[in-house]
């Protein structure tokens, strides 16, 4: 498992699951978990914690960038089993409860099946629980504005577009931005490498996703931890600009 875990700073690790990343923030024995992968990634998720010397009980909170199944996968498991609070942007809370579901449809996938990588990605998503009903019973909005009183002191940054309540997280002292799916560095359905937006079919509001790049351009940082793709080292501002150029 260790080869899938990348330490990017003291107390900050990016973990590659099966096509989706999550981030482990640590402060001593306490952990903040940002996203949780697919439902089928649970063993990898727990193994990544164990490899870093932590038990699931050490997770003080789960932060969700957005409530698609490949990021929400084990949030309810941790909440229900260990009492771990699950936080998201206020606009994303009903999505996490599954009051509604905004994610790519089977029809959209079929209409894009001719594109390279789409069919293998879709098969993997189905096998990993991409269409499983996995609501979080009681997700909560972020408890405060500004830095959260959690390991890593992450600062939620609203970046709606991919979903209505998508949130990135800024670690200003470390110069790190956790970008979720609002700005990625790769995806199985993309042949582009480096900073980019996800293919159009994945976004709820493409104009909003493009507009959210303005937010990233305003953040200080030189390390990007995306929801998909490898760690990107270099100016976050420049990464957002490059993604904008590619989107146009």
TrEMBL record:
The keyword Ribosomal protein does not apply. Residues 19-228 form the Metallo-beta-lactamase domain. InterPro entries: Metallo-B-lactamas (IPR001279), NDM-1-like (IPR050855), RibonucZ/Hydroxyglut_hydro (IPR036866). Gene3D superfamilies: Ribonuclease Z/Hydroxyacylglutathione hydrolase-like (3.60.15.10). Pfam families: Lactamase_B. Keywords: Hydrolase. It comes from the Bacteria. GO terms for molecular function: hydrolase activity. The keyword Zinc does not apply. PANTHER family: METALLO-BETA-LACTAMASE DOMAIN-CONTAINING, METALLO-BETA-LACTAMASE SUPERFAMILY PROTEIN. This is MBL fold metallo-hydrolase. It comes from Streptomyces montanus. The lineage of its organism: Bacteria, Bacillati, Actinomycetota, Actinomycetes, Kitasatosporales.
